[in-house]
Amino acid sequence: MKTIFITGASSGLGKETAKLFQRKGWRVIATMRNPEKEQELNLLNNVHLLAMDITDSVQVKQAFKEAVSIATIDVVFNNAGYGLVGPFETYTEQQIARQIDTNLNGVLRVAHPFVSYFREKGIKGIFITTTSIYGIVANPLSSIYCATKFALEGWSESMGYDMAAFGIKFKTIAPGGIKTSFAGAAMDLTYHEAYNPILERMTKGFESGELIHFTEPEEIAQRVYEAATDGTDTIRYVAGIDAVEISRLRDDLGIEANSRRINEIYKVKNFLNF
Ligand SMILES: NC(=O)c1ccc[n+]([C@@H]2O[C@H](COP(=O)([O-])OP(=O)(O)OC[C@H]3O[C@@H](n4cnc5c(N)ncnc54)[C@H](OP(=O)(O)O)[C@@H]3O)[C@@H](O)[C@H]2O)c1
Predict the structure, then answer these.
(1) Fewest beta carbons less than 10 Å away: which of 32, 47, 149, 194?
(2) φ, ψ dihedrals at 191, nearest 5°
(3) What pLDDT digit, counting tens, does each position of 97-137 carry?
(4) Which residues does a 6 A CB cutoff place in the pocket of ligand 1?
C-alpha cells in the first residue's frame, strides 16, 4: 500500500486530496493543526491524523518521526497555506513574516527531513507542492502571497535537478481559484482607501468570474493524484480552466501577457511595461 503525507488536510484541497487517495487505496497521513476537531477523516480506514502546525519546527520534526514510524512514505503533499491580500504598505511586519513563514518556510521545513529520508533509504519519492497560478503570473494586491508562491515554484524546480539522480521528483500543482474557505474566512485582508479603485475592480472581477474561476477542490485533487501516479517527469500541473487559460496566454505572449491581462481586466491605469 502506498502512503501520502499531506499538510493542511483539515479543509479544502488538502482534505479532498486525503479523501481521494484513501478511496484509491492509499494510506493517508493527514496532518493538521487541530486533529481533535476533525470529524470526517478520522472515520476513514487507513487515514492517520497527526497534529502539525507547519510554522512549528518541533511539531514538524515530531510529525515526521511519527509518520515514518507508521509507514514508508511515498509522496509528500506540501499544501498548507493561506492568502495575505491587500496593499503592501498596509501589511505589518508580523503579517509579512507570518505569510512567508507559513507559505514558504513551512513548506521547506516539512520537506527538509523527507529529502534525506528518501535519499538515504533509496525511496523514489515524490514531493508535490501546492503553489498557485499566482506563482507563475502575478496578481495585484497579493505581493507577498505571490512572492511566496513564485519562490516555491523556483525552489521546487531547482530541487528537481538536485534530486533527479536519486530518482526523487519535485512537482507543483498550480491551481487557479478553488472553491474553498481560502477566498473567505482563511484570508488575511488589509485595506487602504487609496487603493479602492483597484480593489473594487478586483472584487468585481472575482465576483463576475472574469478574473478567476472557482473550481471544485475534488477536481484539483484529481490533478494531485495524476502528479503522484502518472510516472512522468512533469514538473508543473496547472489546474483549473482559469489557470490553464492564464498560463496559455503567458506561453503565447511571454511575460508581456501579465501586463496585457492585468491592464485589460483592471483598466485602472496602464501601469506595467515589461
Ligand atoms: N482556494 C484558492 O482559490 C487557491 C488558489 C490557488 C492556490 N491555493 C493554495 O491551495 C492551498 C490549500 O488552500 P485551500 O484553497 O484548500 O484553502 P483552505 O481550505 O483554507 O485550506 C488551507 C489549509 O492550510 C492549513 N494551514 C494554514 N496555515 C497552517 C499552518 N500554519 N500549519 C498547518 N496548516 C495550516 C489550514 O489549516 P486550518 O484549518 O488549521 O486553518 C487548511 O487546512 C494553499 O497553499 C493555497 O495557497 C488556493
Answers:
(1) 194
(2) -130, 155
(3) 999 999 999 999 999 999 999 999 999 999 999 999 999 98
(4) 7-8, 10-14, 32-34, 53-55, 79-82, 102, 106, 130, 132, 175, 177-178, 180-183, 186
Helix, strand, coil shares, percent, the chain, to 5: 55, 15, 30
- Give me the sign of the Cα torsion angle 47, 218, 188, 138: positive
Give the up-direction half-sphere exposure of residue 218: CA atoms within 13 A in the CB hemisphere. Answer: 3
Pocket test for ligand 1, best of 16, 33, 102, 179 (most atoms within 8 A of CB): 33
Q: Show the DSSP H helices in the chain as ranges.
A: 12-23, 57-70, 93-103, 105-121, 143-163, 196-208, 217-229, 241-253, 256-266
| Closest C-alpha to ligand 1, atom 23 | 8
The whole-angstrom separation of Cα 133 and Cα 118 is 28
The atom of ligand 1 lying closest to the CA of 217 is: 16
CATH of region 3-190+215-243: 3.40.50.720
Q: What is the pLDDT of residues 216-255, one digit of tens each?
A: 999 999 999 999 999 999 999 999 999 998 888 888 877 6
Residue position matching grid coordinates 510529525: 63
Contact 28, 11 (CB under 8 A): no
Cell of 147: 512572492
The model scores a pTM over 0.85: yes
pLDDT higher than 90, residue 272: no
Domain extent listing, the chain: 3-190+215-243
Q: Is the pLDDT of residue 146 over 80?
A: yes
